[in-house]
Amino acid sequence: MSDITTILDERKKFQLENNLLYNFLEPSATATFYDDFYSDEVKKNAPPEFLDAVKEHYHQLGEDAKRMEAIISNLESRFATKGIVVEIGGSRYQNRSANAYSRFRNYFPLDISHSSIQAYTQTYNKIGFVSNAQQLPFKDNSIDCIFTHTFLEHPLEPEKVLNEIIRVLKVGGIVVHNDAWFCRWWQRYGVVKLKKFSNMTFQEKLISLSAWFTELKVVRIPPILMTRLAAELFAPKNKVTKLRYKKLTPNYSLHLGCDEDAASGIDPLQVIRYYESRGFQLNKPLSSTQRLFHPNNSICLEKIA
User: Fold this and answer.
1) Global pTM value
2) Based on the number of CB atoms within 10 Å of its own CB, is 295 exposed (0-12), middle (13-18) or buried (19 or more)?
């Protein structure tokens, strides 16, 4: 677009770097962590012995890449040439986002990591935003499409992010979340499935055994289903709902990329309900049974009011 400032909230101050990077960020421990995480200059701790193998395993499965390709292809059919598309949590690694930068005329990544967005602007010679997603730098009703990928679990207050998305999206705008739902308490330790049991400390072994128990389906699934059923049956209709999620303690001392830095465990159905109570509807309606057994998949909603 010819003038990016037409969508920016004039009340928010920023620094313009290299005519491409719009920096709205205020210093915080979270911002420092993600700046270091994506920086090539910051020395990282030695990774656990199985980390590379675990990441390669999921890479070979390719499910994540297929899902993002389907999401971007769907959005591309609607917003390729018209409309402003923002990826919250967008990064220098555009392969994570099915190379969205090349598929939308007005695509803009926004992230709390200065180093990531700086690398994006330098690599692709395109505009990027550095900002806390809990305070988006855009005007009300100014954005046509917002999508996230493995992002929503990281902000300390995810409900503020959702409120900001609701504020800046136009009526008729689309939001897609392809996030890491139900992040676990044990991920912050960086040991489960990442270290050989015999090489763990006594405390790490206790963590690993506890994680094994809580991951049993007969232990983990029933509470989720009961919570969903109660919400669907007894929560007041047509009433603004709260976002209910499990707070986690992010670990900012590790740089593994295995959600050790996750700040919450979120049920996608809770996010759906949050949006629905604020004038959104699902792109594809779900039956009561489908809502109850909704998988850890992406969700897509349209702002209708």
Assistant:
1) 0.95
2) exposed
